[in-house]
Amino acid sequence: MPRTYILALDQGTTSCRAILFNHESKPVGISQKEFTQFYPKPGWVEQDAEEIWSTQYGVIAELLAKTGVSPGDIAGIGITNQRETTVVWDKTTGKPISPAIVWQCRRTTEIVEDLKAKGWEEFIRSKTGLVLDAYFSGTKVKWILDQVEGAREKANQGKLLFGTIDTWLIWKLTKGQVHVTDYSNASRTLLFDIYDLAWSEEILAELGIPKSMLPEVKPSSWIYGKAEISLFGDASIPISGIAGDQQAALFGQMCFEPGMAKNTYGTGCFMLMNTGERAVASQSGLLTTIAWGLNGKVEYALEGSVFIAGAAIQWLRDGLKMIEKAQDSEYMASTVEDTDGVYVVPAFTGLGAPHWNMRARGAIFGLTRGTEQAHLIRATLEAMAYQTKDVLGAMEKDAQITLQALRVDGGAVANNLLMQFQADLLGVKVERPEVIETTALGAAYLAGLGVGFWKNQGEICSSWRMDRCFKPDMSEERRTKLYRGWQKAVERSKDWED
Ligand SMILES: Nc1ncnc2c1ncn2[C@@H]1O[C@H](COP(=O)(O)OP(=O)(O)O)[C@@H](O)[C@H]1O
Ligand SMILES: O=P(O)(O)OC[C@H](O)CO
Q: Where does sn-glycerol 3-phosphate bind (predicted)?
């Protein structure tokens, strides 16, 4: 009997999800759980890799229990993950030697500035396609080796391993048998030459990272190993797809042709445009990154990474306690007509694309005696749309195109008010698909292609269905006026931290 499902594991910044997809690309069951974020100092963000694993394992168990799907019915596992977040663990004990350093964490700002002062910026960009910023894994690994007692010595003796979260989960799923990543995740480490498709000896040497710590790099659809956990009983399930979550969403949105783009509104906001087999070097503050390795070749994307999007709504919920649930932001924002001139710049961990200002910090502008809670909530929501406009402007410049429609996904696109404002502000149609779990879907597709569950991209291409199209409905004059206010606010939030 052919197996009927693909299991996608979506390990995001704030939660772990497990989703079963059937052959018609429909999600037949989902389990999700948030896990703990640690903010030990201003600008620092940490997670516990063991908790990530136990949460991920827990949602798999819950999903199988609630759907009654037998592990023997699962054809393959696809893994997609928050990218750049860095785990270093002891090869023998399998225990992490420090907290996982999250992609948003700014603790390596000084290492980055030192590299810049030594003139590494251009070399790193030319090899990795990335901007020299604390965002990426390379300086985080160096920080761990420098700061954790005895770490560098152990690393030099080949006793430590590094991985992004995909690598960590596969290590756990295979009981320490497989140490692997895919091209899309490797391209986010600051250590990988995206043209030669190899770890960069020069960058590793400069950061003092021994090559023995690094995982093997494979295509995004491949049989990497078999899941060997007791949950699966005797059924041995191939792990057959890996992609960083933003690349997986690009795949799940079926942006297979050069020029097709998607924007994902999760913790951060990430716009990626497929550029095919050609790596486009950005002139406007975007990243050149690997979209995926598939069918014996590598394809590239241009990316605009915004660090704080839905995370600012969580801040309204958990920090300011203005709302109970993220969804409440929509109703609250709809109680006022506009923000009454208020702008929230959520640069909590600096600014990413296209500004790249590590020392920017969050700011609120335009407060008056008439400012109400609802204005602040609305301005926080609108900040996602403004940041997206900054990125789209850069992308259109780099790719020399005018986008006709933007495909969107991620947790926050459930917010209709935000989506309408986004269309209004961009002056472009915003298309929300039926399945907004496109990140997991992309990982499922890659895994399914890896085991022949789906024959080829042509077979899956026809399953993209629109849920709702938001059409622009704002005058050019108002759009320009609102955006000018945002640009002023962003400029003033830069270089706040000494
Ligand atoms: N209705 C909503 N309106 C605004 N933001 C929302 C809404 N629902 C969820 N979010 C935000 O979306 C994010 C969760 O999206 P998700 O795609 O699961 O993120 P991630 O993969 O980064 O963990 C959270 O930051 C949350 O605050
Ligand atoms: O967890 P997400 O979906 O916000 O994605 C995080 C990104 O992969 C960071 O680069």
A: 13, 83-84, 135, 245
